[in-house]
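Budget justification aside, the reviewers requested a transparent look at the raw inputs and outputs of the sequence design task funded under Objective 1. We therefore reproduce one unedited record. The lines immediately below are the structure tokens for a 343-residue chain.
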């Protein structure tokens, strides 16, 4: 796979949002998918093969776009023996279930049941594939009361709460450092603590989890950037509860946030080709370094990003998170300040 260069100087570039990021092959498949065609998606996944991390990342983006159409179903009708089509059916089914629950649609329960069946069918079709298990982890967040037994299992780390650890282990068996699986687990822990004001132990479990993961993630792994997501969510919740001002903004300049930003920079960013990485991870790292008072380091990440911008984390940390355009303004301010300081 050939990826574009992210460029080495983002000064003056207009921010661009692209779910494909640096992946030009994925971008082409998405264009075909939006036009109602599935052949490019089939070719892309076939070429991706058993590069499980790349398969997970690409199928996640494809699933979000395909969920609003019947393109995957058309592909499966044409090629019923395709493990890739079966996996993509699991992807779109989960995306539809998540959307229905978010919109409180009356079909949410039935869509969740259908999605779970699609996941197990995909897992049976290609047992080595981690994606169906990642999809089941995504569904776990919808089980708010943890009624299903597989969502109440004990973690290997005693300080962590009950959760879908068995599902995470199924992914671990297939792709040990799978990025999306650990993000899905973090989403589950955040959902579990939603509305748990006054329960510091419940809220702390998300931070405990990400710091535990980063303690064993190897150099070059995007899991070293996982803690940055937990700190953004922590900041968002504290702001929503009315806490603000200089004291809260120091959140980024003090440990553990500052330490984990440094670890992500030195242990992940400096060990990889940034153009092979998630632009969402890079945006989180650029923000953490800029907000943590390290503009020169942030400038390096912004330069690697080129024009690529994501709504998160900039919207969550903006002064007015209710305005979508505030994210772009915050991103541009951070980028300009970082480059100015670097000069």
């Amino acid at each position: 796979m050939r990826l574009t260069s992210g460029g080495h100087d983002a000064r003056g570039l207009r921010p661009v949002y692209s779910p494909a990021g640096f992946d030009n092959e994925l971008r082409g498949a998405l264009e075909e998918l939006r036009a109602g065609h599935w052949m490019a998606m089939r070719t892309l996944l076939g070429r991706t093969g058993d590069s499980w991390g790349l398969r997970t990342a690409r199928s996640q983006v494809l699933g979000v776009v395909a969920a609003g159409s019947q393109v995957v179903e058309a592909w499966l009708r044409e090629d019923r023996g395709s493990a890739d089509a079966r996996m993509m059916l699991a992807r779109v089914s989960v995306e539809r279930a998540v959307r229905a629950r978010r919109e409180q649609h009356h079909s949410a329960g039935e869509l969740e049941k259908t999605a779970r069946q699609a996941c197990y069918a995909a897992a049976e079709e290609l047992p080595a594939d981690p994606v169906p298990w990642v999809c089941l982890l995504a569904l776990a967040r919808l089980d708010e009361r943890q009624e299903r037994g597989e969502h109440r299992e004990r973690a290997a780390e005693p300080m962590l709460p009950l959760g879908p650890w068995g599902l995470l282990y199924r992914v671990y068996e297939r792709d040990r450092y799978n990025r999306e699986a650990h993000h899905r687990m973090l989403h589950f822990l955040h959902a579990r603590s939603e509305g748990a004001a006054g329960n510091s132990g419940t809220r702390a479990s998300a931070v405990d989890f990400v710091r535990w993961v980063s303690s064993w993630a190897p150099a070059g792994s995007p899991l070293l950037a996982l803690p940055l997501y937990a700190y953004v969510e922590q900041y968002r919740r504290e702001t929503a509860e009315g806490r603000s001002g200089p004291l809260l903004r120091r959140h980024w300049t003090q440990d553990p946030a500052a330490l984990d930003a440094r670890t992500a920079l030195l242990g992940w960013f400096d060990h990889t080709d940034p153009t092979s990485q998630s632009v969402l991870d890079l945006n989180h790292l650029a923000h953490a370094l800029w907000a943590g008072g390290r503009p020169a380091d942030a400038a390096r990440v912004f330069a690697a990003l080129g024009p690529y911008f994501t709504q998160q984390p900039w919207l969550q940390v903006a002064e007015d998170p209710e305005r979508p355009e505030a994210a772009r303004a915050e991103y541009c301010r951070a980028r300009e300040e970082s480059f100015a300081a670097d000069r």
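DSSP finds 17 helices and no strands in the chain. Residues 57 and 180 are 7 Å apart (CA to CA). Computational costs for records of this kind are itemized in the attached budget.
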